[in-house]
Amino acid sequence: MAALAGLFADGRIVDLVLLLVAAEAGALWLWRRRAARGPTWADLLPNLLAGAFLLLALRAALAGMPWIWIAAPLTGALLAHLADLARRFGAGGVERQVGSGGELERRPV
To answer: Transmembrane stretches, by residue range (predicted)?
Structure first.
C-alpha cells in the first residue's frame, strides 16, 4: 500500500496513465489500419492531446511544481480542446455516431 501511496505522492501514477493513453492510441491506430474503419488520426489527436495535457498538469500539481508548470499544460489542453470542437462543429455541421461500427456522420445544424 505504501508503494501505491508513493506513486500518488510524487505524481508518478500519471506516468502509468499516460502509458495507457499511448497504448490506447496504438490500439486504435492498429484497428484503423487493419479494419479500415474507426476514428482517423485527425479525429483522435486533439482529444488525446487534451487528455494528455490534463494529465501532465495533474502530474505537475502532485509533484508540487511551480504554478507555471501547471498552467502551461492546462493551456495546451484548452487549445487541443478548442481544436477538437472546431473539427467537430466547424463547417456548419455536427457529428454524431451512427451504427455499430462507430462511423461518424455530418449533419447540418
So the answer is: 12-32, 44-61, 67-86
Domain limits for position 68: 2-91
Q: What is the mean pLDDT of residues 68-86?
A: 97
Q: List the grid coordinates of 32.
A: 484503423
Among 107, 61, 60, CA closest to 88: 107
CB 38 within 8 A of CB 102: yes
| 84 lies in some domain | yes
Domain count, the chain: 1
Tell whether 107 is covered by a domain.
no
| Domain contains 105 | no
Residue 86's CB is within 10 A of a number of other CB atoms, namely 11
10-25: pLDDT as tens digits:
888 999 999 999 999 9
- Distance CA(87)–CA(82), nearest Å, equals 9
State pLDDT tens for residues 25-69.
999 999 999 998 888 888 899 999 999 999 999 999 999 999 999
Backbone φ, ψ for residue 106 (5° rounding): -95, 130
